[in-house]
Structures are given as C-alpha cells and as structure tokens.
Amino acid sequence: MDKIHYTRCPLCGKDKLETFLTTEDFLKTHESFDIVKCAECSFVFTQDVPPEEKAGSYYKSENYISHSDTRRGFINRLYHTARKYMLRRKWKLVSHLTAGRKLLDIGCGTGYFPAFMQKKGYEVTGVEVSDAAREYGIQKFGLRIVPPEQFLEDPREGEYDVVTLWHVLEHIYEPGAYLDGIFRLLKNDGVLVMALPNHHALDARIYKRYWAGYDVPRHLWHFSPRILGHLAGQYYFRVTEMYHMPFDPFFNALLSEKYRKNPLWFVFGTGIGFLAFLRGFFRVENASSVIYILRKNTGEAGKDIIL
Ligand SMILES: [Zn+2]
C-alpha cells in the first residue's frame, strides 16, 4: 500500500529527521510504524502513514470507543464514566471562557459533547468525517453535523464564539487548512479550545513505544506544549491558558499496560496513572493530555508553514 513518506519536517521544512521510536498499531492491525523527530524544531510525527483516503480502515474497530457505545470491559466502563464527568467539566470551562453561545465542535464523533452543550442553551454545529458517527448524532440528538468539506468551504467570517477540538487535531491530515478555517469562522474575541495528548507526559516517558497516546497510525502528529505554541503562532493564534485532563493519565496507563501484556495491568496501570495524574496536576506541561486555550493573535506572526 502506498504510504506518505516525509523527507522534510512538515512544520519547519528542514530535512534533518531522526527516528524517535518504533511502535505499532496496538489497536487494530499490529503494523509497525516509525515516529520521527525533526532535529531542527523538535516536531514529532508518525512516518509512512496511510493516505487519507485509506485511513478509514484503521478506525473500523469495535474497540474504537470514542465512536461506540459499548460498555464491555473495565476500560470502556471507565471511559463512559469519565465522559459523563468531562461533559460537565468541558461545559464549565467553555462557559467560563466566553459568554457567547455559538459553538462549533470539530471531530464531534457521535455527538455527545455538542448534544450536552445544546441542552445547556448553546447553538451548536458539529463537524465529523465518519458518515456513521454523523448519522448517529443527527438521528439520536437532532444535531446539526456537517462533513469536513462543508466546514472547510464555509465562506462565512466571525461566525462562532467558540470552536472546540477534543482530541482531534492529531488525527487531521491538513491541520493547517483546519486552523485557517477556524481562524476565519471564529469571532475576533472568540476562543479556540483544543485537547491533545502530550508526549512530554510522565506516562509517555515510562511506556515509550507502548504508550497509548501515540495511537499510530491514527495519530499523525505528536504535540508538546512548545510545539503546539509554535504551530498556533504560524496560524495567528496564541496559547493563553493550559489545563490538564484528570482521567487521561489513568486511561493511557491502563491501556498501555494492556499493550505491553502485563498480567498485573490493573495494579500497574492504576499506580502509574496516579503518578502521571499528580505530575500533570502540578505541572501542566507534563500532563498526559493538555487542554489548550487559544485566542486570535493581534500581534505579528509568520506564515511560512507547510502543514
Ligand atoms: Zn522541523
């Protein structure tokens, strides 16, 4: 199968790429993938990923829980409990950031977050690439959910008060096109909220190739706070706040223990998850997942990016 092989860094354009680690698709195919790091700017990304039109097959797994409603197994149950709690946390965060009520949720999956926000009085539009997930959200919650093309070609300006991407940007083949679209559609005083895994987390350093946050080849880019800030600047955004996500260290650690086939996965996963939680609680730069709050940059910013 043809794959996308990078000879230059998609962020800075330099050709000094080094192997960062070799891991595999633990979720589905067990295919091996290299993750490379740019020696110039430290951007870390997955090498030889499938082309976008073939990426869909890597998602068609009963285990891909963010698109499913299955409650089988402990990790799935934890995921659903955490999701309920996090819906409230996300709503509180968004309502604290802006009084505006027009929300665009990109990569909304089956629509639980936009549905919750709609109930809280927000005027919501979702964007979702999966036909099945989009259909589910429309049928079950009566939401407005559009495919990505419709969002990318939307010519309106300053339409939304807030745009959210919960664990989405790392899956997107053209993050630059999305950031351009978001910039256009966001009001000048609007807020962009993005949650991303952080490979500078304690759990990432412990589990290395088994770390669930790499999730290759579904995760194309592996961000850190510094790199995300750099990328944001190229698209006229600036990071104004960062928060940790309390459940992600546990979720990552338990899943990573399963990937490394530890018979004591529950004990180790809970213990390391707790340590990683504490680390992220006290130092958000090392949290397992970081919620970035971005606002439009009114100062000078370059635009020499390739992504
Ligand atoms: Zn680079």
Topology:
Layout: E1 17-24, E2 32-38, E3 44-46, H1 52-55, H2 74-97, E4 102-106, H3 112-119, E5 123-127, H4 131-141, E6 145-146, H5 148-152, E7 160-166, H6 175-185, E8 186-197, H7 202-207, E9 221-222, H8 225-234, E10 237-244, H9 248-259, H10 265-282, E11 289-296
Parallel strand pairs: 4-5, 4-7, 5-6, 7-8
Antiparallel strand pairs: 1-2, 2-3, 3-9, 8-11, 10-11
Helix pairs in contact: 2-3, 9-10
The structure holds zinc ion (ZN).
Zinc ion binds next to loops.
Describe the structure.
With 307 residues, the chain is α/β, with parallel strands linked by helices. The protein is 36% helix and 22% strand. The protein is built from 10 helices and 11 strands. The protein has helices at residues 52-55, 74-97, 112-119, 131-141, 148-152, 175-185, 202-207, 225-234, 248-259, 265-282, and strands at 17-24, 32-38, 44-46, 102-106, 123-127, 145-146, 160-166, 186-197, 221-222, 237-244, 289-296. It has a 7-stranded mixed beta sheet with strand order 6-5-4-7-8-11-10, sandwiched between helices. The protein has a 4-stranded antiparallel beta sheet with strand order 1-2-3-9, with no helix packed on it. Mean pLDDT is 92; it is low at 302-307. The structure holds zinc ion. The site of zinc ion has 8 residues, from loops.
